[in-house]
Amino acid sequence: MATLLQEITQIMSSLENDTLSPAESLRLLADKIQMENHIVQLLRKEMSKVIVGQSYMVDRLLIALLANGHVLLEGVPGLAKTLAIKSLAQALDATFSRIQFTPDLLPADVSGTQMYNQKSETFSVKKGPIFANFVLADEINRAPAKVQSALLEAMEERQITIGDETFQLPNPFLVLATQNPIDQEGTYMLPEAQVDRFMLKVVLDYPKMEEEKLIIRANVRKEGLEKISKTLSTADVLRLRELTREIYLDEKIEQYIVDLVFATRNPSKYGLPNLETLISFGCSPRASINLALAGKAHAFLNNRAFVIPEDIRAVAVDVMQHRIGLSYEAEAENMTAKKIVEAVINRVDVP
User: How far is it, in rounded angstroms, from Cα 294 to Cα 296?
Assistant: First the structure.
């Protein structure tokens, strides 16, 4: 990492006298990030009014917000998954809708449908709850595959087709889904094709003892939970996303990303022959794209105008773990996708 930083510094110094100096552009970008970062910190502060002890989850939600990606939150009940997503939407001056996924839900309940007007003898479109800036898909694994697939076009293309008409979804548009891993009856595992469309899969754990005390105090107050103020507009979000895209990604970091992804496809070539029988399929190209985007967002949150290997390592598990197929041998050995990604991270050389 130190070597890469030295190289970036040298490049900046050597290009200082250029008319269109990349070095100067990088410095200007760093100044912009410094000025804009306080807005994100205000957003984090607002969410902390009601979310206690889940800073990791909040960071991942902010990364998804900056990188224009969708998030899948997995954890046992009561870990503030739904509350965190609602709090994020409340802190933004944006439209929000919540879809409670149930076994009897229909695709039209998500995307919308055509309604027949008997009086005028015409059809009109009734848009569904998917037409919002933030869509909370609560307990997404409780609905059957045909309903889950109704989200596919929306998540990937940012548009919905109802009948023979196609409608663009609002911008920004984020799907934030939750799923409960402990209930098996009446649940449907998400298809690999849909899981791959989530930029991040965040697995949550229980809060610490001191944090749980604070949670009790916050929820038993006479006044109830604190109110969240709106701190960002949709225009702010779009501006911050453009700024995040400008963050410098060195070619060596690109190669590092590709090495991490290819190590899940051909483990033996990276000195991990023991993983060959544990992986049925490796990460898709979306993993490479999302590692780069999430790495840039992580750099933004840390007030940097360029991505370092630690940014990629910080987001690698959340970007990659749901894109790896486990074999029967892996399940027999209690090997999880997270452990495989961690083994890959520890093995692949850092630039």
Answer: 5
